Amino acid sequence: MSSNAAVTSNPNWPQDRLKDESCWSDTEFCKEKEDWYSVAKTLAEQEASEYARNNGLNVVALCPPYVFGPLLQSSVNTSSKLLIYVIKGGPDVMTNRMWDVVDVRDVADALLLLYENDRSSGRYICSPNRVCTRDLVDLLKKMYPEYGYVNNVVDADHAGPPLSSQKLKDLGWEPRKLESTLSDSVQSYEKAGLLQGNPCRLPFLIRAWL
């Protein structure tokens, strides 16, 4: 399992071209931004790919973005903490940036699909949905108007080209709609008691990126 963090941070990628599996994050650019998460994900996937080439192996990497959806575990991962902050609100400022999102169940389906398909090879972007912060809030408010929601959202101008999941879809991958993922996420958080109480904070990792 890799990450879209190994794909997206490439300032030299043409702005009018979808980012596909040939796009790699620029590790020197990431180091300048002190984005060590993307550095680690990129180097790890590149090392695995090089080892595969040198040893006659077929290493397949899946690159998902922020992963929402129902929780199975008792702990809350960073992606879910992001969505919980959007719903509950809090003191941290958010930019109106674009968020690439996938459902955790679609990630599981993709992993199984790649494992069972003899044609799978190389990298696969697993990123079917893209939404900006304000549109994400509006979508959630229509379904669940009772929550406070983040209200300190400032403009941003760093959307970058969208990601293409076509290579994975060509194998038969059929991801859910974003609205379904959001609805099931909120219901899961409600059941776990995660939307009660006072406003919260953005995860530190995400605060560092904004």
Describe the overall structure.
The strands form 3 sheets. The protein has a 3-stranded mixed β-sheet with strand order 2-4-6. Strands 1-5 form a two-stranded parallel ribbon. Strands 3-7 form a two-stranded parallel ribbon. It is globular. The chain has 210 residues and is of the alpha/beta class. The model has no long low-confidence stretch (mean pLDDT 95). It contains 8 helices and 7 strands. The chain has a single domain (4-209), classed as Rossmann fold. The protein starts with 26 loop residues before the first helix and ends with a helix.
User: Runs with pLDDT <50, length 5+?
Assistant: none
Gyration radius, in Å: 18 Å
CATH topology: Rossmann fold
- Strands side by side in the biggest sheet: 2-4-6
Overall strand count: 7
Query: What is the CATH superfamily classification?
Result: NAD(P)-binding Rossmann-like Domain
Protein structure class: alpha/beta
End-to-end gap: 24 Å
**Tally of individual domains:** 1
Q: Tell me the overall shape.
A: globular
